[in-house]
Amino acid sequence: MDISCAFAPEPDTVEHIALAERLGYVRAWIYDSPALYLDLWATLVEAANRTERIGLGSGVTVARLRNVTVTASALLTAHIRAPGRITLGIGAGGSSTMMLGKKSTPWSETIAYVGAVRALLRGERVEWDGSVIQLMPAWDESPLPVEIPVVIGAEGPRGEQAARDHADGVFSAQRIPDTRFEWSCRLLWGTVLDEGEHSDSDRAFAASVAGAALTYHFAYQTGNRAFLSTLPSGDAVAGYLDGLPDIDRHLSLWEGHLLRASAMDRKLMPRGAPATITCTGSPAAVRDHIRRLAEQGITEVVYQPSGPDIPRELEAFARATGASSIQDKN
User: Fold this and answer.
1) 96: pLDDT confidence band, cut at 50, 70 and 90?
2) Which of 97, 128, 151, 185 has a beta carbon 3.0–4.6 Å from 169's, enabling a disulfide?
3) Does a structural domain hold residue 21?
4) C-alpha pair distances (Å), 13 with each of 9, 162, 272
5) Is the link from the previous residue into 114 a cis peptide, with omega within 30 of 0?
6) Does the residue 197 lie in any domain?
7) Which own/partner pairs from 46-52 qualify as long-range (CB within 8 Å, at least 24 positions apart)?
8) Who contacts 16 (Cβ-Cβ below 8 Å, separation ≥6)?
9) Is 104 found in the same domain as 137?
């Protein structure tokens, strides 16, 4: 089991990635939601310049956000800065498209995008949007061809099939894939409790509420009212959001997404709910949670720290999981 981390990029993220490298995390995945966070690729390249070992990936980007040549060029730039350490994570769309009030990208479009990016990085010509395109580096020695591993973000059977047929692995946040992959990443939120600390302490709540809120937000956005009703205060969350104006409800829904609790989350989230939804518990409980994921076929745990003290969360999770024992891996 590889122990990696993820970040919603903000001003201190590069420092946090450098710390993650020192702590022994295998990879740092960077979210891509332009309306909410700093730019994925600028952050990734800056992190590449500040680190030497840790893998770096988009976790995950979405085809509709950028022209295919822009993504291919960004990957090439990152590869030159950190050869062998870059991974493209790509999906059909989550907060990055929902924050824009748009639907997810069709899987056929996402698959075509992955194929075009890979072909461009091999130096090939590609027919795209009615034209022939190609990466043609203008300096003397071309760095092409370049092979970049790809994982596809999937929360259902169609995404998993796309990952199996067109990528090197799968990346999930809300479910365990139906079938096993050689490379299966699972995103986690939560906090490792201090000795004697209760799961509803002020610190634990602040460190885990943003991760817990995703479950509510995603259930509402995807229309899964039956599941939302099973969550603590889920009906209250649905009622609150139903009462907001249709035109900008999506903005309120994703406020502070995965970084900090929104006004709605602070008002409606029951104090003990984050501990029941996230990977929150003693070091032994966290290790047991990860062991169960490994038994279900997960090969890489991706922990996203949140709350007011990101270094504390990274350090506590690394100690609990033994991340420091795998520093020689990429």
Assistant:
1) low
2) 151
3) yes
4) 5, 30, 28
5) no
6) no
7) 46/14, 47/13, 47/14, 47/17, 47/18, 48/78, 48/81, 48/82, 48/85, 48/86, 49/81, 50/14, 50/17, 50/18, 51/17, 51/18, 51/21, 51/82, 52/21
8) 7, 305, 310, 311, 314
9) yes
- Least confident among 52-61, 78-87, 254-263: 254-263
pLDDT of residue 266: 86
Average pLDDT, the chain: 92
Q: Residue 249 falls within a domain, yes or no?
A: yes
- Is the pLDDT confidence value at 127 over 80? yes
What whole-number distance in Å separates Cα of residue 68 and Cα of residue 89?
14
CATH code of the domain covering residue 30: 3.20.20.30
Question: Residue 325 — very low, low, confident or very high, per pLDDT cuts 50/70/90?
Answer: very low
For residues 122 and 155, membership in a common domain is answered with yes
Task: Say yes or no: 177 and 221 in one domain.
Answer: no
Burial 291-325 (b: 16+ CB within 10 A, else e): eebeeebbbbbbbbbbbeebebbbbbbbebbebee
DSSP state of 11: T
What is the rounded distance in angstroms from the CA atom of residue 327 to the CA atom of residue 23? 8
| Structural domain that includes position 77 | 2-192+281-326
The model's pLDDT over 224-269, given as tens digits with 9 standing for 90+, comes to 999 999 999 999 999 999 999 988 888 888 888 888 888 888 889 9
Give the total residue count for the chain: 330
Rounded to the nearest 10 degrees, how much is the dihedral formed by the CA atoms of 51, 304, 315, 281? Answer: -160
In the chain, the number of structural domains is 2
Residue 135 placed within a domain: yes
Q: Whole-angstrom Cα distance, residue 31 to residue 4?
A: 14
Output the furthest CA–CA distance in the chain (Å, rounded): 63
Q: What's the CA gap between 50 and 81, in Å, rounded?
A: 10
302 and 316 within one domain:
yes
Q: Which helix (H) or strand (E) holds 330?
A: none
185 shares a domain with 255: no
Please indicate, yes or no, whether residues 66 and 102 belong to a single structural domain of this protein: yes
First to last CA, the chain: 13
